[in-house]
């Protein structure tokens, strides 16, 4: 079982996000959790130099809708990366499995379809406490981690594009 803050990272290893623009899609289901994920993501982006105006946040009804919310960002905006934030808590039926698999597949497909970093920030927990622990509680904030991942992926893509431009 995880016992340390999983969101701890080396601050100096994160590129400057000053020129980057991000879209964040937040699920309204379990909003006490997803709202905390979103706050963590926004604060982390700002901490690494992303301008307020370059952080666009949109809400969708549930985690199953995260994929389409992400597609809307890819189609209708010029964001550098998209962060999907949701929380699915295991219930008595198999609904959990279908939502988790749907979003994982959806996020993967968006990455490939748009050649754009689409970050999988979906908490998939057995219970509410595990979700609290991972949304600003004792095990960190998955929203922070998603933001750092997004910045790093944009920097990686920018690096490839610069190298090609120099050839
Ligand atoms: C229906 C449903 C259920 C049972 N559980 C969750 C959940 O734990 N987390 C979540 O984000 N959304 C849940 N939803 C809603 C679905 O994601 C989706 O919004 C509906 O199935 C409509 O497509």
Could you explain how this protein is built, in words?
By secondary structure, the chain is an alpha/beta fold. The chain has one domain (19-166): Rossmann fold, CATH 3.40.50.960. 47% of the residues lie in helices and 20% in strands. The chain is built from five helices and six strands; from the N terminus they run βαβαβαβαββα. The protein has helices at 31-47, 66-76, 95-114, 128-133, 142-166, and strands at 22-27, 55-60, 81-89, 118-125, 135-137, 140-141. The strands form two sheets. It has a four-stranded parallel β-sheet with strand order 2-1-3-4, with helices on both faces. Strands 5-6 form a two-stranded antiparallel ribbon. Helix 1 (31-47) packs across helix 5 (142-166) and helix 2 runs parallel beside helix 3. The longest helix has 25 residues, at 142-166. It is globular. The model has no long low-confidence stretch (mean pLDDT 94). The site of ligand DLZ has 15 residues, from strand 3 and helix 3.
């Amino acid at each position: 079982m995880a016992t340390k803050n999983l969101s701890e990272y080396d601050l100096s290893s994160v590129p400057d996000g000053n020129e980057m623009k991000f879209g964040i899609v937040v699920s309204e289901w379990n909003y006490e959790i997803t709202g905390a994920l979103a706050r963590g993501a926004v604060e982390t982006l700002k901490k690494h130099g992303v301008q307020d105006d370059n952080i666009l946040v949109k809400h969708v009804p549930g985690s199953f809708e995260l994929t389409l919310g992400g597609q809307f960002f890819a189609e209708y905006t010029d964001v550098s990366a998209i962060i999907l934030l949701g929380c699915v808590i295991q219930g008595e039926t198999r609904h959990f499995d279908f939502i988790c698999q749907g979003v994982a597949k959806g996020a993967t497909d968006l990455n490939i379809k748009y050649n754009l970093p689409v970050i999988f920030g979906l908490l998939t927990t057995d219970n509410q406490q595990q979700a609290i622990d991972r949304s600003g509680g004792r095990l960190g904030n998955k929203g922070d981690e998603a933001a750092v991942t997004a910045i790093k992926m944009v920097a990686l893509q920018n690096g490839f594009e610069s190298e090609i431009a120099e050839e």
